[in-house]
Amino acid sequence: MKIRNGFVSNSSSSSFIIAVKGGTLKEKTDEYCRELEKKLGKKFPFADFIREIFSCIKSNSKKFDVDDEIYEGYDEDEYWKEHQEMKKLVDEGYILYQVNVSSDGEEPVEYYLYSRADGIEFQSSDKTLIATQF
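Request: output the structure for the sequence above.
Response:
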């Protein structure tokens, strides 16, 4: 008989897409943070947390090529709709990044993003930074 001490954890991950236009992901997320600080004031109590979120996004992202991605297990109609929406963004001059976050990430902010990835929706006022769950 084998006895295991400790616990077994199933690692889970989630992802979402960030579309960037007119700059790099780093530049646009930095601009968005400054935009939020301007709107909410530098003394906004969660300003540091917002910066941590965008730092996590930048460190867990990779460029996303719509035509190279394979969606196994997706409903064909659902896949086609998402694919067309992403292609439209690319045609409009956006660069797409896939952000992958895990429930067992090293930083608490990564778990926070993982737990909310299905509902992530935001965009900068000039629409050069858009995040969405496809």
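The mean pLDDT is 77.
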